[in-house]
From TrEMBL:
Any one GO molecular-function label of the UniProt entry: iron ion binding
Job of this protein: May be involved in the formation or repair of [Fe-S] clusters present in iron-sulfur proteins.
GO terms classed as biological process: iron-sulfur cluster assembly
Any Pfam family: NifU
Protein name per UniProt: Fe-S cluster biogenesis protein NfuA, 4Fe-4S-binding domain
InterPro entries registered for this protein in UniProt: FSCA_dom_sf (IPR034904), NIF_FeS_clus_asmbl_NifU_C (IPR001075)
Cross-referenced SUPFAM superfamilies: Fe-S cluster assembly (FSCA) domain-like (SSF117916)
Native organism taxonomy: Bacteria, Bacillati, Actinomycetota, Actinomycetes, Streptosporangiales
Residues of the NIF system FeS cluster assembly NifU C-terminal domain: 91-156
Gene3D superfamilies: Fe-S cluster assembly (FSCA)
Organism of origin: Streptosporangium subroseum
Length: 186
């Protein structure tokens, strides 16, 4: 199996290089470099589009599932707006992968919205009573799963539901003044 490529890291590197090209002082060199990038991206996009068409025309759902299940291919399909699943569908699938973790923390997650700017809104239900880091743990797991499945997502907003049960022990600051003297036990 070929080595895994990090689509997000590569995309970030490409963006950085394109930004650097924009700083070239020779306008002709800058224009040629930007055209080269554009032509290559269009070529690879057209090739991917044709692959998706061939697989879809052959009605080979097994091959299509393998293609969209591969992180590298899936990321490229998203980049070229060719992924057969919508962002919301991919987010729902990602949430399904983290539900077992959420179950361990007496919780769940609900997809509220995916807006046109790529912001995903989720609602976290429940908490792990007595586990102070659980909400952070599950929120991080959710965000990683969502971004892996839908790299075009610009932000993940998670609304948490705070557990309103009182903790077993509450320690509070002593009110100002002298220390109360305990009553004698008879």
């Amino acid at each position: 199996m070929p080595p895994a490529h990090d689509v997000q890291a590569t995309g970030s590197r490409v963006e950085a290089l394109i930004s650097e090209l924009g700083t070239l002082t020779d306008p002709a060199a800058r224009a040629k470099a930007e055209e080269l990038v554009r032509v290559l991206v269009e070529l690879y996009g057209a090739g991917l589009e044709r692959v998706v068409e061939i697989v879809t025309e052959a009605e080979d759902a097994k091959v299509l599932r393998r293609l969209v299940g591969d992180p590298l291919v899936s990321g490229l399909l998203v980049l070229h707006d060719l992924h057969p699943l919508s962002t919301a569908e991919r987010v729902r699938e990602a949430l399904d992968t983290v539900r077992p973790l959420l179950g361990l923390h007496e919780g769940g997650v609900e997809l509220l919205d995916v807006d046109e700017s790529g912001v995903v809104r989720l609602r976290l239900r429940g908490t792990c009573h007595g586990c102070s880091s659980s909400q952070t743990t599950v929120t991080d797991a959710i965000e990683r799963a969502v971004v892996a499945a839908a790299p075009e997502v610009s932000r993940v907003d998670v609304e948490g539901v705070v557990d309103d049960r009182a903790p077993l022990l509450q320690i509070r600051h002593r009110p100002p003044g002298s220390c109360p003297v305990p009553e004698a036990v008879s």
